[in-house]
TrEMBL record:
Keywords: FAD, Flavoprotein, Membrane, Oxidoreductase, Transmembrane, Transmembrane helix. Its EC number is 1.5.3.1. The lineage of its organism: Bacteria, Pseudomonadati, Pseudomonadota, Alphaproteobacteria, Hyphomicrobiales. The chain crosses the membrane at residues 20-41. PANTHER family: PEROXISOMAL SARCOSINE OXIDASE. It is an enzyme of class 1 (oxidoreductase). Its cofactor is FAD. Pfam families: DAO (PF01266). This is Sarcosine oxidase/sarcosine oxidase subunit beta. It comes from Aureimonas pseudogalii. Residues 23-368 form the FAD dependent oxidoreductase domain. GO terms for molecular function: flavin adenine dinucleotide binding; sarcosine oxidase activity.
Length: 395
């Protein structure tokens, strides 16, 4: 990183230790911002994290009981190829945290109408050497008494998948980073970033750094106008459920489930210690404002409940524990927008509903670019899953 002879007046941050690489300002304490801070301190940078809400923030996309991780990636072959590295990046993170917040279990993919997603995943799993096998609809009905196999035309069960536990990961990351001198600015909404100077303004104060990373999730377009045309906030609904007692054991042993279908189109994360059974909607609404009241209305819930009635046997015997509204940004082709902006800025919008599993890997790529260990130019296509190989160095 080049020297910065003419830094603007900096806010007083006495505990920020300048690292070998300089000081980086990160906007957002979701998984993107926190794992970028983690990757940066590993490379010798001093880091300050600015967060509009509490740290971590329950309104962030990242804050939830569980997230799916998997190698099966449908038509997104580039992301499938990145997944072995993404799993390895999480292992580096877990080693630093001293805890593995992952429950490795298979993923069951159900196909109703013929889809590219199903066939492409099978091809990629074969190419990556991930163990998997196809199951007949009759086998689904027999093995999974809680599922309704009516209308399922094909299915496969794949290893190399499971559930990550975001609340635990975020919390441990915050503790880890604070212990290594990262300065947190909670309840501090950044008003503007200067991507040429590597600075930002919050509460009327300009904070100086050598680089600035905008990892502001569904709000990122407010700070980086060029994102507005590329990614829109999307209001999404999830349901947390208590199954009937007779299905308790079956659900505890269940795989993660993706149900592909025009009218179904859901994903299910089974209950495990510390988490509830959850169903989410695969369909993007591409509407809404992440600052709205997030109260689930009948219109939010209707499609998901109709899909659940197709997917689960006797869905009306389940107790609806919570309907939750969350936001992420969605791009046209579901890729991430991660790129240099200006001379000293980076945009890290790792969303489209699948960014949690890849966040530490993408963050290592951003940190490498800031450290000059990989070309800034290649970052965008790599993070969009458009490269044949990851092409990055591990720290
Ligand atoms: C319902 C749902 C299900 C999902 N399922 C999966 C899944 O199964 N697998 C998977 O891999 N991914 C999944 N995702 C996607 C994944 O959770 C997101 O890609 C990821 O959490 C995005 O992280 P982020 O850090 O970019 O954004 P966020 O977690 O939203 O963090 C951004 C932070 O920036 C802060 N901020 C915004 N503006 C400012 C500002 N001006 N100043 C200061 N702070 C600011 C916000 O308050 C927020 O805390 C899912 C997402 C949702 C919502």
């Amino acid at each position: 990183m080049p020297a910065t002879p003419d830094r603007p007046k900096t806010a007083d941050t006495p505990t920020a230790r300048p690292g070998a690489g300089g000081r980086v300002l990160v906007v957002g304490a979701g998984i993107a911002g926190l794992s970028t801070a983690w990757a940066l301190i590993r490379r010798g940078f001093a880091v300050e994290v600015f967060e509009a809400g509490p740290v971590p923030n329950p309104r962030s996309s990242s804050h939830d009981e569980h997230r799916i991780t998997r190698h099966a990636y449908g038509p997104f072959a580039g992301y499938a190829r990145m997944m072995p590295e993404a799993f390895a990046a999480y292992e580096r993170l877990f080693a630093d945290l001293g805890a593995r917040h992952i429950d490795e279990r298979p993923i069951l993919v159900l196909q109703r109408e013929a889809s590219d997603w199903f066939a492409a995943s099978l091809a990629d799993l074969g190419a990556l050497g991930i163990a998997h096998r196809e199951l007949s609809p009759a086998a689904i009905a027999e093995r999974y008494p809680m599922l309704d196999a009516t209308g399922v035309s094909a299915a496969f069960l794949s290893e190399g998948a499971g559930m990550l536990f975001p609340i635990r990961i975020l919390t441990d990351l915050v503790v880890h980073l604070a212990g290594r001198g990262v300065v947190f600015h909670p309840h501090t909404r950044v008003e503007a970033v200067d991507q040429e100077a590597g600075t930002l303004r919050a509460g009327g104060v300009t904070h100086g750094g050598d680089a600035v990373v905008v990892a502001a999730g569904a709000w990122a377009g407010r700070l980086v106008p060029e994102l507005r045309g590329l990614a829109v906030p999307s209001r999404q609904t999830v349901i947390y459920l208590a199954p009937p007692p007779a299905l308790h054991d079956a659900w505890r042993a269940a795989p993660v489930i993706i149900d592909l279908g025009e009218r179904s189109g859901t994903y299910t994360l089974p209950p495990s210690p510390g988490t509830r059974l959850k169903m989410g909607d695969h369909h993007f609404t591409r509407r809404g404002d992440p600052d709205d009241d997030r109260v689930a209305e009948a219109a939010d819930v209707a499609r998901l409940e109709a899909a659940a009635r197709l997917a689960y046997r006797g869905f009306d015997r389940y107790t609806r524990l919570e309907h939750k509204i969350c936001y992420y940004t969605v791009t046209e082709d579901e890729s991430f927008v991660v790129k240099p902006i200006g001379a000293r800025g980076y945009l890290q919008s790792a969303c489209s509903g699948h960014g949690f599993k890849l966040a530490p890997l993408i963050s290592e790529g951003v940190a490498d670019a800031i450290a000059g260990a990989r070309p800034r130019d290649g970052l965008e296509s790599w993070a969009a899953g458009r490269e044949e190989t990851g092409g990055r160095r591990a720290a």
